[in-house]
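Thread: Modeling a multi-component assembly for a lab meeting

Hi all, long-time lurker, first post. My supervisor asked me to bring a structural picture of a complex we are working on to next week's group meeting, and I have zero experience with this. I have the sequence lines for every component (1292 residues in total). Could someone generate the structure of the whole assembly? Inputs are pasted exactly as I received them:
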Amino acid sequence: MSDAVTVTFVSPKGDSPGGGSPDGGVAARKVRSARGATFLEAAQAAGLEVTATCGARGRCRSCRIQVLAGDLPPPTIMDEVQLGHDEVHERFRLSCQTRVIADCKVMVSPPKAEVGHQILSGSASAEQVQRVGLDSGIEKRLVRATAPTDEDHQTSDAEEILLALGKASATPLQPDVLRAVPAALRDADGAVTVTSFNGSVIDVEAGDTTEQSYGMAFDIGTTSIVGSLTDLNSGAELAAVGGINPQAVYGGDLMSRIAYAQYEPKKLQTLRARVLNAVNGFIKQACKEAGVETRHLHKLVVVGNTCMHHIFLGIDPTYVGLAPYAPAARDPIVASGEEVLLKSVPRARVCFLPIVAGFVGADTVAAVLATRIYDSEETRALVDIGTNGEVVMGSRDGLMACSAPAGPALEGAQIRHGMRGAVGAIEKVEIDGDVFNQVIGDSPPIGICGSGLIDAVAKMLDAGLITDMGLLEYDHRDRFSAVLRERLIKKDEKEQFVLAWAEQSGKEEDITLTQGDIRQLQLAKGAICSGVMMLQQVMEVSNEQLHELMLCGGFGNYINTASAVRIRLMPALPLERITYYGNAAALGAQMALLSETERARAEKLAREIEHVSLASHPDFQEIFVEALQFPVRKMPATESPSAAAT
Amino acid sequence: MSDAVTVTFVSPKGDSPGGGSPDGGVAARKVRSARGATFLEAAQAAGLEVTATCGARGRCRSCRIQVLAGDLPPPTIMDEVQLGHDEVHERFRLSCQTRVIADCKVMVSPPKAEVGHQILSGSASAEQVQRVGLDSGIEKRLVRATAPTDEDHQTSDAEEILLALGKASATPLQPDVLRAVPAALRDADGAVTVTSFNGSVIDVEAGDTTEQSYGMAFDIGTTSIVGSLTDLNSGAELAAVGGINPQAVYGGDLMSRIAYAQYEPKKLQTLRARVLNAVNGFIKQACKEAGVETRHLHKLVVVGNTCMHHIFLGIDPTYVGLAPYAPAARDPIVASGEEVLLKSVPRARVCFLPIVAGFVGADTVAAVLATRIYDSEETRALVDIGTNGEVVMGSRDGLMACSAPAGPALEGAQIRHGMRGAVGAIEKVEIDGDVFNQVIGDSPPIGICGSGLIDAVAKMLDAGLITDMGLLEYDHRDRFSAVLRERLIKKDEKEQFVLAWAEQSGKEEDITLTQGDIRQLQLAKGAICSGVMMLQQVMEVSNEQLHELMLCGGFGNYINTASAVRIRLMPALPLERITYYGNAAALGAQMALLSETERARAEKLAREIEHVSLASHPDFQEIFVEALQFPVRKMPATESPSAAAT
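Re: Modeling a multi-component assembly
Sure thing. I ran the full set together rather than chain by chain. Output:
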């Protein structure tokens, strides 16, 4: 494997793009590109002309492409902003924002999407930006105010500023803002930038800082945290940060995390301090990378499951862990950074999206927002895979949700050689005579990420190395070729399969999948699949009636949907009805960051989504046991619907 | 002097009170009482029957008395609540609340006040309590809520509580309240007390704590801090605390305090920490004395001058100290204890009354509230003496205010033997052949308080020991009797007058008044008097037209108004037009604590009061120089009006 891939560019009429190309008659132009470059960079490096009116800033739609074949990169927030969900779903992307991840074929300047399903209300007009309008609620205004003079016997600094702002009768400024007022009014000769959030003044600064208006969206997962820094004036994403949730040492899944904090205020404070420190650190890191001052972060949107939400806010999560798993509150919360102890951004407004139920949290609401399943004419399912797997099913006629405790396996945790989707992670596996691994960053493998795990098990099932009950065929290893037989080993009393030998490995030890790893994966995928099946049963939706399954999650790298079906991470659906949507929770948080309309929609959605409790449903155990197994045949797409859909 | 005084009780018809008394024909009954006892206790100890329907809790008017002769104790908050301003001004008091301070004659069960001036709108009805209605804005309600059960798939703890409260659609609970929710809902089997302030939920507690609803009012002075703890259900004052403002070591007056903090954020933080520590300490002390848990303090009202207000909130006071002395803000502020770093009461609502101008602060607004000068038909003046002396003049037709920098002399500071009005302070002086001191607590003198200082200088002026220019007659000491001559001494190069010899003194050194002390007093009283004179000039109010002068301030002990006029602390008015009103700022803060109507009134008043800047007025210097001098003759009451009133 090399870090260079082949991108085939075609034009809408079938001729090669780039106008002045001498071989005008050729239907396509093949370009070698570095993985990780944007499509625009790949095209430009090859001398192809692609119009990028806004200067590759994601602020117009001129450079859009359609991915005709090959792995589809998940949409970015600017794809959503500029193209809207319809086109994003039809594999349209902005070439300036989207990175090349594999060999593929793309069309430049494609005609408007043949609308497969109109999820958005209203027509797909040229005013695409209005789909996620830039209405972050943050307004920065430069005013000219004069400090009180000898003629003013009876005024105050604050009144002079509000007068200049034309808001003389506004709510009084709160102490945290007032502290900045006297200096701001005098340091730049009366030029003051006033920042407000939905009309309330939240900051004043000397001079003109109207161009510096930023926000961050955070998805606090049980296992990992991701954040992105966005320019609230343009909508452009400026930095992406993330890492392991440092609470993980106190328990890998929600229940063990809750058990740790249960009834012990001090331990709750330990967990809280860990996540706050991490987020404060990510804020500083992102600001440094983007060259932004933390004081110009004015709005944050935080999503996460209910337990992460409670711990972040210092609320005892004990009862989230006990039936009936009720949260302390479900309403959205808006507080200052100071109030929630985000010390790096004391004056920013921190918005926590609402919660549906104890195990269907704000992250799920954000994913619903990002996928726009709430506006779908047909029945769709959204499967957000984290340490808990949340499933939302329905259409514009109503949505139901449930949550399945998957454990952290798909996020690379509690797997012997598991790791996040970072450089050195095996992300794809081929077994064809021997084992061939694709490793992120084209480096020697040091572990395996969630998508690699799914892929490896799928290919091992195909090769017969694992039975449909999930047993490694160690005892029958003589059935296999010498090359594969050698890889089926027993070490430290544990049966395992060697994906990469020590001499190829970046760790200088064998990278293996153990029988235990396979069991972890089975529990994870069984939980998630049974969640989907349960909602199908409750809502009486057969596989045929399920128009699309949107697979989301920040796990591993880009997931191989064929492998996901192969291991029955989801019911047997035709592959073309499965979309991998990337980290939809994080994307939804970004949308709520950029748009108060979207944030208000989240509040409405959270009230409307109906929660189905798996644990208390009499049929769950039976469905779960079925879902634990692997499908017997290789491609189940043509099989009859599973039991759940009868 | 003894600590026992004589109280003469008379009945309205002139017969001795107490019904069953054998000497029914005698017009009065003399009773010896300990100073500091309440009038009710004095009466009961002597076997007199005084009806106290509410059990001496200040909750009815049955035990009221009228002080016919002798020093009038300042009104308490319960006098205001039960009797209203009219009767308070007519020397009515509740005998259960009012303490005996000197020999006096009082009438029990007096008829309703012969209304001298109707300050209150509406008639003096039986519903006196409505005058300061108990509408603190704090409401505690006990509700029965059930923690979510297995049947509730989709609710939350907070929703169950709000539902039980009948406020399902209320504003979402903020994180600080939410933290208390899960335990509160489960610790007392669903019995939850919900505390709200003006409809917003600010706390939840397990069990029934509706009876425990308390608040504190604080007057943060430059020199001293006083606080009182009040039961918000009954209006009863439960504890009074106070002491030196510990910022004082960084400057005795406002200007030196501001100069210390100027441009130096760290020093501002030092001053802020000092006042916060002191207030937190007073909160704990008051709660301990009253047997109240700090968590049941739900509302605080804080008044103070603009500089104290800014420092308390961490706002740079630099520009309050530079012309035109503009504050950062004038609006009232309401914040949580957590927000303003009052760590002992994180969830209480802390209300800062509004500000009129840089040197006419929230304390003055509170004094206006307490004296009800805003509703007076005739022109009155209110003089609030602190380190700055604020003067408010006017009537229901409008009010003007100014501020005079008096310095801390009248609060006992920067006086050689100065002290607060505590045990050991000389509070009264008689010079009749020799010097006789009245000392608080009837103990040996250890210093002199503000009222003692005024009294001493007044009597020394009468005796000719001080000239009208303020010079100690040391050089002419041979004019005096041997006893007084001996008291005029020179020590450490300083001319001084011995009030108490070392052998009588609790400090075992002479307690003296120095020439410097007299100069400090002159500067203080000159500043205050010129403030009154200046407003008289601007508003064209002669001494004759000034219906009443209400002298307020927490300084020393009960001030002798005759002495105050003698030294020209105020213009030459007939004594009967001068009322000593006690610490009106603290009383106003208590009124705003008990009544949101009063707090709203404060906001309106602050906007309406017109500020007159002394410093920028061309006539001020001339008036000030005149006011510095002492009047030549002993009793100026019959003199022609002063220059200011011409």
